[in-house]
Amino acid sequence: MPPELFHARTIIVWARGHAERMRREGRSELGASAIEWAIISAVVVVLALIIAKVITSVVNDNANKIKDGSNY
């Protein structure tokens, strides 16, 4: 499992536990809000990591082309 997905799953598991605790205390609307924020945060983190990986790959490819003296 990629580290990005591991972190996203960790956030979601934490949020579900937090929501369950809030439901037991009678504050269900706050639990739902916490889950929504956790899911949004997890998606943003995963997208940021994917974008960073793509950018790193493009930069490394172009650096290798410059090093080799190739334009293509």
Automatic annotation (TrEMBL):
Keywords noted in UniProt: Membrane, Transmembrane, Transmembrane helix
TM helices/strands, residue ranges: 30-52
Domain of life, per lineage: Bacteria
Name of the protein in its database record: Flp family type IVb pilin
Lineage: Bacteria, Bacillati, Actinomycetota, Actinomycetes, Propionibacteriales
